Amino acid sequence: MIGKLNHVAIAVPDLAAAAAVYRDQLGAEVSKPVAVPEHGVTTVFVNLPNTKIELLEPLGEGSPIAGFLGKNPAGGMHHVCYEVEDIRAARDRLKAAGARVLGDGEPRIGAHGKPVLFLHPKDFCGTLVELEEV
Ligand code: CO
Predict the structure, then answer these.
(1) What's the 66 CA to ligand 1 centre distance in angstroms?
(2) pLDDT tens, 14-26?
(3) Spatial distance between the Cα atoms of 14 and 121, rounded to a whole number of angstroms
(4) CATH number at residue 26
(5) What is the pLDDT of residue 38?
(6) Residue positions annotated with a catalytic role
(7) How open is the CA angle 84-23-26, to the nearest 5 degrees?
(8) Helices (H), the chain
(9) What is the pLDDT of residues 30-77, one digit of tens each?
């Protein structure tokens, strides 16, 4: 059901510093910061030949990554995003199998302008999983 790895997301306390690490030390192509207020984050995309790294910094009150950074103050891997062809069909199949979909279970528009859903880490090997329809 899942297709390509779309991105790996890393939560960071300082987005400019993290972007500089990827650009200057690792020699990667990084985007300008993009604020995504509906998801409570500012993102920088690191474009790799086969996938992307999404650097996430909290934006505003009650950011969904604030708690994660509280437990991981230096930052850390936050989620992996897999591509699916039909996100509602994927959701229905996972829910029927007992997996927990976060939020109200309805896809929202993610940082790339495509519908996304998040799956509970306890159901997926301790890793928060994002599904993105492509
Ligand atoms: Co993501």
Answers:
(1) 15
(2) 999 999 999 999 9
(3) 24
(4) 3.10.180.10
(5) 85
(6) 130
(7) 85
(8) 15-20, 66-71, 87-96
(9) 999 999 898 899 999 999 999 999 999 999 988 989 999 999 999 999
Provide mean pLDDT across the span 100-128: 93
Q: How far is the CA of 80 from the centre of ligand 1 (A)?
A: 7
Q: Is 60 helix (H, G, I), strand (E, B) or coil?
A: coil
Q: Sign of dihedral through CA atoms 7, 30, 74, 103?
A: negative
Whether the pTM exceeds 0.70: the reply is: yes
Would you call 131 exposed, middle or buried from its count of C-beta atoms within 10 A (0-12, 13-18, 19+)? buried
Report the pLDDT value the prediction gives residue 132, as an integer from 0 to 100.
97
Q: Output the CA 25–ligand 1 centroid distance in Å.
A: 23
What is the 5 CA–ligand 1 centroid distance (Å)? 11
Q: Residue 82: beta bridge partners?
A: 5, 131
List the domain range (segments joined by +) for residue 15: 5-133
Domain total in the chain:
1
Q: Which two tokens stand for residue 109?
A: 């528009």
Candidates 48, 45, 69; CA nearest to 58 is 69
pLDDT, the chain, mean: 96
